Please model this.
Amino acid sequence: MKTLVLANQKGGVGKSAVATLLAHYFRKLGCRVLAIDLDHQGNFSDPLRKSQRVAVAEVPASALLTQTSPVIPSADFVLVAADQDLSGLERQPSLQNAFANNLRVFLKAMEARFDVCLIDTNPNPDIRMIAALVSAEFVLSPIQLNQEALDGVHALLNHHRVGVRKIKTMLNPKLHLIGLLPVMVEANPFQRENFLQLVQKFHPILIPYGTKPGQYASMPRRSAVAEAQAEGLVLWEMKKTAARDAWREIEVAMVVIAKAVLDGAQTQTTPITPINGADHGPVAG
Ligand SMILES: Nc1ncnc2c1ncn2[C@@H]1O[C@H](COP(=O)(O)OP(=O)(O)OP(=O)(O)O)[C@@H](O)[C@H]1O
Ligand SMILES: [Mg+2]
Model:
């Protein structure tokens, strides 16, 4: 089982929407999928539940951290849904090692039952995100093309608790950053400029595709994506032409991410171009 965490401390950047698309996409590829929603907002749980394609576990996601042997249904597409107790875990510091350990042991026990485990996280750098990142093999970070997000890439890699590079060095050497995925991309000059900046500064941690250099996976802003997310629909099965067009644009990113997860990905060691003259060292990957 390959475990992929969607993580970015920035809120509202598209983590849950990408997680949902990936869950359905891995099913389309015939994978057995375990979906875990560690965000009490439930924006990964709701669309999957509404899609009526998942077996929803009786145990809530908080139980994967608080219990030693939680039981989930036997099915090829299982959701362990978000619950409100998730937001209280951070307030129990003496139990945090146990929380991370419980999740790791649970995921280990699921190894043979699923091909892919997708974990959606909350936008706070708390124990839920740490527990997910210390147990996972892959992390994917959706980001938006605004200045604030570009400035946030450093924290995403180096945050003292949940920075991908920090976790990789201190707690989980097998963690691989699949990359930054620009999402909700709009065809305006402002975003084009920010994309160029992102490529310039962070191309080693973007997700290349195709044979030509300089092509990086991204997802456009399309109302059909928000609609699919709100209604629990599967984007490529929606009748509207706009949804089919959106899927055609998004499929490239899904293909390359799924391939990285299923084939395993090479560890990246390329240094990032320093931002503002500071040396950020090798990229976590
Ligand atoms: N490609 C897209 N095109 C249009 N709307 C999108 C796209 N991706 C996400 N959205 C919408 O943007 C909003 C925020 O997305 P989402 O909930 O996935 O972000 P998030 O990073 O999970 O947020 P949080 O940090 O609160 O968990 C949602 O309404 C979602 O449907
Ligand atoms: Mg979310």
About this structure: The first helix runs from residue 15 to 28. The longest strand covers residues 176-182.
